[in-house]
């Protein structure tokens, strides 16, 4: 880092040196002998070395004073103190801008969830007024959607204080998946989707609550883009968990953006209940847990969650 800053401070001087040395060497080569071309090169290199040493010493003293200024130590040079204050101010502005963008993003996501809840309430109201035999099933489906949306909203708000809500311990992939499948069995029943599960007692290190929510997001997405009668494969290879569906799949041009908030891509035009929030949240949680999440799409969609990077 120090050499990089020295280069930034001295690069024009060094470039000028090379240009000047090249002209002097060319002059001696044209109007003198070949042996004489070494004299300007050696002399210029010696002078450059002295100049760089002086510049490096000055830069080193400057950075030492700057470090003392940041630490609150009194410095004689007011310029150093002013620069330190400017750097601290810039860091504060950057952090303020980051938090502002995060707040705007959260408000936008919450607005989307409120919209989804409103749609579910309208559907439930219409179904309750209907005498159709399908009405009860529609109400149950919308109730499940409402519960899912509320859970997403709560988890996103908790992400802001993730460190305080993080309790990691040893568990197994099979233990977590059995709990997730048990909690979401009605989702598979209503949609007519069949999970094909093959798991081993692979020991991992994670926060069970956050990991369950993360896997639920991946399962929900797999079910959403599958059709009645299809199967979702759920298996692990060592510490890598795979959730593979044979549904609609994701277009190749959409894959780079699937973890962006609100991005629904081409599939979002076919499924109006797509919010573009599920995979965004899944990726945020995976990063916080230090697990690797990747999505590929070939004859359906495959989500791979790796527990290799344990804390």
Number of DSSP E strands: 7
Contiguous helical run count: 9
Specify Rg, calculated over alpha carbons: 31 Å
Average of pLDDT = 76
Quaternary structure type: single chain
Structural class: alpha+beta
Strand content: 5-15%
List the secondary-structure elements in sequence, H or E. HHHHEHHEEHEEHHEE
Show unreliable segments.
none
Q: Tell me the major beta sheet.
A: 5 strands, mixed
- Rounded to the nearest angstrom, the distance between the terminal CA atoms is 28 Å
As laid out across the biggest beta sheet, the strand order is 2-4-5-7-6
Helix content: 55-70%
What is the topological layout?
Blueprint: H1 2-31, H2 38-70, H3 78-128, H4 135-159, E1 169-172, H5 173-183, H6 185-191, E2 194-198, E3 203-206, H7 208-224, E4 231-237, E5 240-245, H8 265-270, H9 278-289, E6 292-297, E7 301-306
Parallel strand pairs: 2-4
Antiparallel strand pairs: 1-3, 4-5, 5-7, 6-7
Commentary on this structure:
- This protein is of the alpha+beta class and 311 residues long.
- Helix content is 62%, strand content 12%.
- The chain contains nine helices and seven strands.
- The strands form two sheets. It has a five-stranded mixed β-sheet with strand order 2-4-5-7-6, covered by helices on one side. The protein has a two-stranded antiparallel ribbon with strand order 1-3.
- Helix 7 runs antiparallel to helix 9.
- It starts with a helix and ends in a 5-residue tail after the last strand.
- The mean pLDDT is 76.
């Amino acid at each position: 880092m120090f050499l990089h800053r020295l280069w930034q401070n001295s690069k024009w001087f060094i470039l000028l040196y090379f240009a000047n040395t090249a002209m002097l060497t060319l002059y001696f080569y044209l109007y003198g002998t070949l042996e004489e071309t070494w004299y300007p090169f050696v002399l210029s290199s010696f002078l450059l070395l002295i100049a760089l040493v002086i510049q490096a010493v000055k830069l080193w003293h400057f950075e030492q004073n700057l470090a003392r200024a940041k630490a609150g130590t009194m410095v004689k040079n007011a310029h150093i103190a002013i620069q330190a204050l400017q750097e601290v101010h810039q860091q504060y502005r950057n952090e303020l801008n980051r938090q502002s963008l995060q707040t705007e993003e959260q408000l936008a996501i919450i607005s989307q969830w409120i919209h989804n809840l409103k749609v579910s309430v309208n559907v439930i109201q219409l179904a309750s007024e209907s005498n159709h035999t399908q009405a009860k099933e529609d109400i149950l489906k919308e109730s499940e959607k409402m519960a899912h949306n509320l859970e997403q909203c709560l988890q996103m708000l908790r992400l802001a204080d993730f460190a305080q809500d993080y309790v990691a311990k040893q568990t197994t992939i099979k233990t977590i998946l059995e709990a997730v499948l048990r909690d979401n069995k009605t989702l598979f029943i209503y949609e007519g989707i069949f999970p094909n599960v093959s798991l081993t007692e692979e020991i991992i290190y994670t926060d069970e609550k956050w990991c369950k929510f993360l896997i639920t997001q991946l399962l929900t997405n797999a079910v959403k883009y599958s059709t009645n009668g299809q199967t979702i494969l759920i298996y692990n290879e060592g510490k890598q968990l795979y959730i593979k569906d044979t549904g609609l799949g994701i277009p190749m041009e959409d894959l780079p953006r699937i973890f962006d908030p609100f991005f629904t891509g081409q599939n979002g035009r076919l499924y109006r209940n797509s919010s573009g929030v599920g995979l965004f949240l899944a990726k945020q949680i995976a990063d916080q847990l230090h697990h690797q999440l990747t999505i590929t799409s070939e004859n359906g969609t495959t989500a791979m969650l790796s527990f290799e990077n344990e804390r």
